[in-house]
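Narrative of accomplishments. A recurring question from our advisory board has been how the design workflow behaves on a single, concrete structure rather than in aggregate. To address it, we present the structure tokens for one chain from the evaluation set, followed by the sequence designed for it. No filtering or post-editing was applied between the two.
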């Protein structure tokens, strides 16, 4: 059994969790692959353990049986991109804030790795969306695609069609196209619904629409959603999972469910509704504290 470790030491306090992973691996004869950039950043830790060093994170992932992603949900989104073509199971250790996908707390690392060793887990497969852009580019998102305004206080105008049928001309601060996984991210803050993972839908959520009766839509993800910038193309940003792709997208975007997915490790005691209760404080009554 071989683990690949993925982390961003510039953003999160990952030293102690990674050291706990490496200690467990040393005790259990489990090999570790790591990209040279991470090893060099944490040389004081990695110098005490044997590891297989690769020149890129993608190569480390490709040579491993499991990926241990240490950080927050941003690290999980980065790991999703690394594993989408090679669906290695991903275990997320949370050192960020909310941690919807990275939901193993550092104090539970040893128990979680023991579950992996004993094959005591299931796979939570999370589908991605893909956007085909009229300039020939194709990009993928585990959380969402976002059209938003740039360097202006004016709203942007977007034309939307679904399965060849006109939906609406949106005039808003932005427009989100989210996966069920991304339903608890920006979509939730924008007033969109929470959707159970693995539901084959995508969410179309306007951000501060000019017309207050313009509400979020839930659409089957097996058909094409087309978005076109209208008169505000030069003031519109297009991004995927937080990465800006186009700053002046006077282009067409065809969005649909991708064949790529991310395989998240789910331990026996974990379930989605428990995550909602823990992360969103469902059912918490502070009057009783």
């Amino acid at each position: 059994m071989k683990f690949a470790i993925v982390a961003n030491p510039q953003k999160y306090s990952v030293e102690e969790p990674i050291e706990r992973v490496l200690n467990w691996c040393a005790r259990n004869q489990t090999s570790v692959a790591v990209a040279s950039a991470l090893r060099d950043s944490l040389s004081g830790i990695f110098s005490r353990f044997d590891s297989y060093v690769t020149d890129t994170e993608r190569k480390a992932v490709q040579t491993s049986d499991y990926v241990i992603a240490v950080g927050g949900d941003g690290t999980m989104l980065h790991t999703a991109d690394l594993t989408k073509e090679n669906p290695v199971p991903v275990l997320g250790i949370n050192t960020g804030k909310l941690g919807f996908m990275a939901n193993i707390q550092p104090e539970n690392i040893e128990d979680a790795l023991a579950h992996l060793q004993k094959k005591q887990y299931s796979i939570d497969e999370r589908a991605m969306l893909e956007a085909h852009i009229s300039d020939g580019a194709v990009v993928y998102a585990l959380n969402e695609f976002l059209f938003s305004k740039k360097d202006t206080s004016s709203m942007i105008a977007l034309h939307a069609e679904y399965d060849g049928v006109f939906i609406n001309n949106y005039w808003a601060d932005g427009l989100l196209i989210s996966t069920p996984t991304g339903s608890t991210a920006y979509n939730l803050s924008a007033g969109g619904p929470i959707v159970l993972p693995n539901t084959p839908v995508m969410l179309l959520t306007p951000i501060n629409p000019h017309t207050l009766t313009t509400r979020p839509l839930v659409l089957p993800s097996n058909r094409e959603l087309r978005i076109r910038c209208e008169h505000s193309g030069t003031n519109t940003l297009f991004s995927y999972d937080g990465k800006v792709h186009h700053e002046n997208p006077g282009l067409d975007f065809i969005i649909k469910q991708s064949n790529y997915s991310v395989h998240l490790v789910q331990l026996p005691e974990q379930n989605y509704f428990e995550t909602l209760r823990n992360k969103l404080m469902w059912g918490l009554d502070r009057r009783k504290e």
